[in-house]
Write a structure and sequence with these properties.
The chain is α/β, with parallel strands linked by helices and 125 residues long. Strands 1-4-2-3 form a four-stranded parallel beta sheet. Helix 1 links the parallel strand 2 and strand 3. Helix 3 crosses helix 5. The protein starts with a strand and ends in a 5-residue tail after the last helix.
Length: 125
Amino acid sequence: MGGRFSYRRIYEDTPPSQDGRRVLVDRLWPRGMSKERAHLDEWLRDVAPSDDLRRWYHHDPQLFADFRDRYIAELEDAGHRPAVEHLRSLAARDKVTLLTATKDLDHSEAAVLAHWLDSVGTTSG
């Protein structure tokens, strides 16, 4: 995972010092996770997939390619622009680790978001 963005599960016990800014990108707060244990810099719900998309996908790996395309389309719409620009501004100053509660990390919105942000760069186009 090269680039300014990485991703990991929020349930990992000790946040590595190399995480940089730690940003939760899930729409819902992770079950059983206290705010103290999360070691978050912020919770950016507005960059998460819409409720409709999240419910449709339901973390089914067979739907991942379609989910990725639909989520990227959402990220490119005006409603997500402020949150995306905020992440880009954070990455211009430091590494950013996107956190999720999802068990299947490689088929998560955090993975899609990290790869997409690294591919489009840290400045708006």
